[in-house]
Write a structure and sequence with these properties.
Layout lengths: L4 E2 L18 E10 L2 E9 L9 E8 L5 E3 L15 E10 L2 E9 L4 E8 L6 E5 L7 E5 L8 E7 L2 E7 L6 E7 L10 E4 L4 E3 L2 E9 L5 E8 L7 E4 L10 H4 L7 E9 L2 E8 L3 E8 H8 L4
Antiparallel strand pairs: 1-21, 2-3, 3-4, 4-5, 6-7, 7-8, 8-9, 10-11, 11-12, 12-13, 14-16, 15-16, 16-17, 17-18, 19-20, 20-21
Length: about 300
């Protein structure tokens, strides 16, 4: 059974009162390994007076995966009427040389799935809404074509879904990938965490589950390398759940929520938001994950 070990220096990022745009919360970061460095593009909430906070995205970079240096100012902010309450929960995949960031565009009522593109992780061009579904989020694109088409995972509650495209912009052929397991830690709904990760055994997918008390936990499933519709394995138990103070208490209590992970030096680095307030990291050897993927419980 795979279990993640929390970094003793958690949280790795906290709200910064000196910067109004990230004074309320920093959490739910996309994670990308580029040139040996870890790039976290994190969701930041401002600290308004008399109105709900607005989310934007900030950037922090690390040499070792644990100690991060924040870059000044927001990296990406709302640009459209669909983003008046901001941009949330990014997930980034390198697809044929282009970084494609899927994120939630939020207008205060309807969360919609939007996309932006970059060549360097620093400069982003907004494409716009890619799925018309309301209340749709938790999405990332697979890093290459499968069966001749692009594929993404998304969430139309309570299930995880697949969608298909010939060009990465126009999506259809929606089909359910996985459903919650009633009476368990994922009773209420499930959704994608970080983007699918190719390992020799197939596609490793980290996903979150929400129980009847709205507690968010994380676990794993393994999809077939050629046909992501086929679930080869699904972890029975959470690999991490709220236990520490920074996961139990915050803007939203009892939440461990992730939008990204990287593999660095044969170690799985799992980045997650604690209680929708701070950023943290937990790790395990990739050998443990591969042993599980090969059927060793």
């Amino acid at each position: 059974m795979v279990k993640l070990v929390r970094y003793e220096g958690n949280p790795i990022l906290r709200p910064e009162p000196a910067n109004p745009w990230e004074a309320q919360a920093v959490f739910n970061a996309a994670a990308v390994l580029k040139d040996g460095k870890v790039y976290l593009i994190y969701r930041a909430g401002d600290l308004p007076a008399g109105r709900p906070y607005v989310s934007s995205l900030g950037l922090a970079i690390s040499e070792d995966g644990f100690h991060f240096e924040r870059q000044p100012g927001p990296l990406y902010a709302g640009q459209d009427a669909s983003e008046t309450r901001g941009v949330e929960d990014p997930r980034i995949t390198l697809v044929e040389g282009t970084y494609r960031m899927l994120y939630t565009a939020y207008d205060g009522q309807h969360p919609r799935l939007a996309m932006a593109e970059s060549d360097d992780l620093l400069h982003w061009k907004r494409y716009g809404i890619i799925l018309p579904h309301l209340h749709n989020k938790d999405s990332a694109i697979f890093p290459g074509k499968l069966q001749g088409r692009y594929c993404l995972i998304h969430r139309d509650p309570p299930n995880m879904w697949l969608a298909w495209s010939s060009d990465c912009y126009h999506w259809g052929d929606f089909e359910i990938l996985a459903t919650p397991r009633p009476g368990t830690w994922e009773h209420q709904k499930i959704g994608l965490s970080g983007p699918p990760l190719r390992i020799p055994e197939g596609w490793l997918v980290v996903y979150h589950g929400v129980d009847e008390q709205s507690v968010y936990r994380q676990s794993l499933m393994l999809l077939d390398a050629d046909d992501p519709r086929t679930i080869l394995r699904r972890h029975d138990q959470p690999i991490i759940e709220p236990e520490e103070d920074y996961e139990l208490c915050g803007d939203v209590n009892n939440v461990v929520f992730s939008c990204g992970q990287v593999v660095k030096d044969d170690t799985f680095f799992f980045y997650y938001g604690g209680a929708d307030t701070v950023m943290a990291v937990a790790t395990c050897p990739m050998a443990d994950i591969r042993a599980w993927a090969q059927g060793e419980d």
